[in-house]
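Review box. Two proteins, two foldings.
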Amino acid sequence: MSVLGHYSIHTYIHTYKHTYISTYKHTYIHTYIHTYIHTYIHTYIHTYIHTYIHTYIHTYIHTYIHTYIHTYIHTYIHTYIHTYIHTYIHTYIHTYIHAYIQ
């Protein structure tokens, strides 16, 4: 192989490396970022938020409301109604017995 042939091959490889590969890498990375990553991240975020809203928030609200209702009603029954019945019966007995004794 002549020096010119060797130089031509070297120049071709060097040019190929610095033009095609650099352009390809740049274009590929740019395309990858703007298509795959954009689509993936968009889809992932959308799916994640959708799933989050429909599972975690739904479960949280359901659990919170369920717990709140059970706790509130239970507390209401055991305090207000208990107090009311206790007070009413106590007052009734004291009034009735007091009136009956006199």
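Next protein.
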Amino acid sequence: MAVIQVIMAFAFVYYAMDWPGQIYIVTVFIGIGLGAQWAIAPSSASELFGLKSFGALYNFIAIGCPAGSLIFSGVIASGIYDYYAEKQSGLQEQYGTEESLTCVGSICYSLTCWIMAGFCMVAAALSLIVVQRTKGVYAQLYG
């Protein structure tokens, strides 16, 4: 899980760089990362916490996707985009063009990508902490 998070962090950093053609590469890596998370998370939850309350645990895992979308897209990304759009609209008013708030350039999303990469690295660190804490248990079970 930690490896997947690191791969996704590098994909977000690569996307923040705004190089030509990067969207295709980033889409592949983010897709692989999200697919791997959805494949690994249920088995990890059942392995760590047992099957007695697996339904509740799986629902807790599944609620992470819409909750993360709300926080990252609805609050963080939109707030940053609106900030830079308002900043650029001041320039548009100065030159006499009146349009809706739009943001042009990589500045609109690069900070959001860096924030997402940071959260991926925090998730990777937390995954490694879980590995360290469960290493002894797995050594006794399968060692």
